[in-house]
Amino acid sequence: MNIVGKREARIDGYDKAAGRTKYYEDQMPADALYVRIKHAEKAHAIVKSIDTSAAQAIPGVVRVLTCFDVPDISFPTAGHPWSMDPAHCDVADRKLLNTHVRYWGDDVAVVIADNEVAAAQGVRALTVEYEELPFVLDVQKAMEDGAPQLHEEFPNNILKHTGMRLGDYEAAVKEKGLIKVEGWYETPTVQHCHIENHGCFAYEENGRITVVTSTQIPHIIRRVVGQALGRPWSDIRIVKPYIGGGFGNKQDALYEPLCAWCSTQVGGRCVRIDCSREETFVSNRVRHAIRFHITTWLRQDGVIAARKVECFSNQGAYASHGHSIVAKAMGSFHQHYPCPNMESDCYTVYTNRPVAGAMRGYGMPQASFADESNIDDCARAVGMEPMEFRRLNIMPQGYKDDFSGNVNYNDTYRECMAKGAQIIDYERKLKEFANDSGNIRRGIGLATFWYNTAVYPIALETTSNRMQLNLDGTVTMQCGETEIGQGADTVYAQMTAQALGLKSYRDVRVISCQDTDITPTGLGAYASRQTYVAGFSIKQTAQLLKDKILQYACEATGVATTEIDIEDGNIVRKDDRQPIMSLSELAMTAQYNPVHSEHLTAESTFTIRSNAYSFGCTFAEVEVDIEMCKTKVVRIVNVHDCGSLINPALAEAQVHGGMSMAIGYGLSEQLIFDEKTGRPLNNNLLDYKLSTFMDHPKLEAYFIENPEPTSPFGTKALGEPPACSGAPAIRNAILNATGVAINRNPINPHVLFAEFSKAGLINDPWKEEK
Amino acid sequence: MYDMKALYEADSVRHAVELRLEHPEAQIIAGGSDVLVQMREGRRAGKELISIYMIDEMRGICIDADDNIRIGSLTSFSHITRDPIIQQYINVLGEAVDQVGSPQIRNIGTIGGNTCNGVTSADSASTLHAYEAIVELTGKNGVRRLPIKDFYIKAGTVDIRAEEGEIQTAILIPKESYANTFGHYIKYGMRNAMEIASLGCSVNVRLSEDQKTIERCRIAYGVAGPVPMRAPSAEAVANGGKISESLVDEFALAVLNDINPRNSWRASRDFRLHIAVEMAKRCLVESIKKAGGEIA
């Protein structure tokens, strides 16, 4: 009986809708002290002194701690698996509180108080004396000689530079008759804007520290807290309850280390850190703003002869996920549009801006915007229809990437484009809109994206899992791959029920909460890995449990293990599928057998040494109001090949969320900074233009289901891919509507005003009079 | 948890005036959708508050003995939008305040708070200016009424006299202003909800009986200057003008003589000037259409 592949309701859906789900704040001990952080109000400075006397005099203030009090330990924060190779370990470049302020919002002191108001008053009462330093916000200016230096060990602020060479680019571009299409493409700093801000609380118990935190990666956080405090890792216990989204921001150690340390400074009492929205924007993580320079050389027939890609990634003040993001971005180009002669370089550069880390898509929304903008420009340069141009140049069926071992088993890109084009009626609209010439112009555009699944072979991919047969015939399952709102627990339940032969996914009790003292070690939620990687350990552990169940069933019934199976929650004879014993009877018999009592349980780890491509595309239809400088997305369609769907309803929900993010990325979202001071200007949900329900048309999600051969359940990445191709599809639709190619996002009214003025679509006669 | 020193709750206008005289430093709070946000940011931390939110006599809309439309200062945005008097006579005001923030904000936010804030971007302000609203203030010496343009002194400052114990109790729209008029409001935002206006434009017209001529036109802007403002040059162009496309264009261009938007990171002056002209055009066209006119 098929349990996977069905549109099932989320196992946590009712409680979430009813407001009963417990998040970290719902579990807060009543006596927790409030920790409020003093954030630097300088972009680059050295803290000379902090006067804490006024803060300490405020009733309710328990303790004030500054950057001069913290242990002299630098630690990394990225939510990457530990590497046994020291050269591959994350850069350790920040302390719990910093005397060297590297961005506006850096953490310099904390006030711990027995109530929220006293803690806030205490922070306002601190006087910080700074020695100001020159600062730099622009990624390429930061690379110049003489630019302000953020970290001594990294000259010219270059955290890392890598490159890739294929064929001979220099020779290839000399071919006669090539057409050159060159552009600079600029992507913005954006923030995840998950509903629940990050927060945590920590206390000491029996010499160990427990941190309950809103994170995606409990087991990794345990290690980082241990590192940051200089404590053995098992001194630390991390508990991850339900969380209100993460999108990668919580794939990083945020304030868990500071919170744990604060507890140790007040005698182990419980302390809480709750980020405000303003802090979340600035003092958590952001998406890397990446600037691309792409030069594509085309033959007259539209074939790409050679391509050069340079990527400059704005890391902000600390390393966090660092070079991994732009390296992934750069690595997509030669696979997405394979060409024999390629030269690519990417740089990750420190600047005095908020720290960039993981965010849904991990470099690919940036790369897709640049790549797909350039590809549309290429199509125009040779006079080809954009989809036709893509069909000609995009990754073919059978393509193999030697580094990851990934194979494009099906002609995924062309299948997805064909389906999307048919659904949105692409070719007819392309013709119809070509005649628009008034103030309102309609346009249609598309963009494809490249993605893969999980992190092999760049980092370890491991997954562990524990299952237990309960006395009522249900099965309890737990693993380290976290539920962060995406619905992971529900698809685990479906996969477990399927692998074991249970009657329903409702017969699986998924322990949603990860507790590093109890939960089998796993790495958490990131890299769109959940369903793919957990599938391996679920299938393997289910097989182990099944073997034990059948062994016991053989003992109890006398029927050989080779002749029995589990189906619909019963032990059945293989021959006629007749039930001979229910799982409940079996579990009771096993548990309460006076001679041979057994608690039937299994646990195992699987190391994944494969990866899987996950591709798709977006089609967008827009209406551009030229005089008002506004774009309305009329229709938007995503098509994904993420393999077999475990739960189509949840898959669609993933795509809808990603499309919403892509619309914001394309049209409105951007964190901006004051050039004169480096101060963030719009770190709140009013001034930061997150797209709203009112800015979306109906979000349309479609799938091509080509089962992934490397996966036990035929699945591959879907968490991040939906956020990748929406922005360039909208950009290309605007180009189609107006003829104006805009090489930066978000394409907001300010940008349209500038671009339309430049293109002569807007003429303000009074400006010429001046 | 808010950092407030004290909260005094008034149960009548008289009580509010007394509290105001007793606590001249206290901040008045109605719906709280601005005051509490500022408090949370630390801007008004540690202040005393006088809440007037429970004073029901300040809530509601009616036509008074002088045929003014009288809007109690505590009337919420959503109440205004759904009110039959507003819908019948000045629907544009209901449409304008329906663009404030989100449904939750529109349920709690009041028109009194929107105007007493003194901010240029308030969604009600441009329409109230375009209808020459009268602000009613009640203090220890009784009622004082003044035109809304005089109520706004400068950005963030309005003419409410604490020493007189004044609170704003109503906003009145005179019959001469609203009778037989049709209006249109455009809020220019960077997104379609949860937005503060980059520019707001409100136009209303009264047409001649044959609907061929504009008898009277009024236009006001928010965010075109430090306080909401009318555009008298543009009104002069339209008043008495024969309805035509060229009249609309001439009217729209004339606003440039009146408005003075600033450069800020939220929007450039050039951008605001550009959309101000376009919005004037579109608001006038829509107003004429609503009034039954046709543009030749």
Short description:
The complex is a heterodimer of chains A (about 775) and B (about 300). Helix content of chain A is about 30%, strand content about 25%. Chain B has three domains: about 5-50, 2-Layer Sandwich (Uridine Diphospho-n-acetylenolpyruvylglucosamine Reductase, domain 2), CATH 3.30.43.10; about 55-175, Uridine Diphospho-n-acetylenolpyruvylglucosamine Reductase, domain 3 (2-Layer Sandwich), CATH 3.30.465; about 185-290, Enolase-like, domain 1 (2-Layer Sandwich).
What can you tell me about this protein's structure?
- The complex is a heterodimer of chains A (770) and B (296).
- Chain A has 770 residues and is of the alpha+beta class.
- Chain A has 3 domains: 31-133 and 192-283, Aldehyde oxidase/xanthine dehydrogenase, a/b hammerhead (Aldehyde Oxidoreductase, domain 3); 395-454 and 611-770, Aldehyde oxidase/xanthine dehydrogenase, molybdopterin binding domain (Aldehyde Oxidoreductase, domain 4); 462-607, Aldehyde Oxidoreductase, domain 4 (2-Layer Sandwich).
- Chain A is 28% helix and 24% strand.
- Chain A has an 8-stranded mixed β-sheet, with helices on both faces. A 5-stranded mixed β-sheet of chain A has the order 7-15-14-13-8. Chain A has a 4-stranded mixed β-sheet with strand order 16-25-26-27, sandwiched between helices.
- In chain A, helix 9 (323-336) runs parallel beside helix 10, helix 10 runs parallel beside helix 18 and helix 17 crosses helix 18.
- Chain B has 296 residues and is of the alpha+beta class.
- Chain B has 3 domains: 4-51, Uridine Diphospho-n-acetylenolpyruvylglucosamine Reductase, domain 2 (2-Layer Sandwich); 56-175, Uridine Diphospho-n-acetylenolpyruvylglucosamine Reductase, domain 3, CATH 3.30.465.10; 183-290, 2-Layer Sandwich (Enolase-like, domain 1), CATH 3.30.390.
- Chain B is built from 13 helices and 14 strands.
- Chain B has helices spanning 13-22, 35-40, 77-82, 84-89, 91-97, 103-108, 111-116, 125-130, 148-151, 175-178, 232-238, 245-254, 269-290, and strands spanning 4-9, 27-29, 47-51, 61-63, 69-72, 134-139, 142-147, 152-154, 157-158, 167-173, 182-188, 199-207, 214-222, 229-230.
- A 5-stranded antiparallel β-sheet of chain B has the order 4-5-10-6-7. In chain B, strands 11-12-13-14 form a 4-stranded antiparallel β-sheet. Chain B has a 3-stranded parallel β-sheet with strand order 1-3-2.
- In chain B, strand 13 (214-222) and strand 14 (229-230) form a beta hairpin.
- Chain B is globular and about 60 Å long.
- The chains are: A alpha+beta (770), B alpha+beta (296).
- At the A-B interface, helix 3 and helix 19 of A face helix 13 of B.
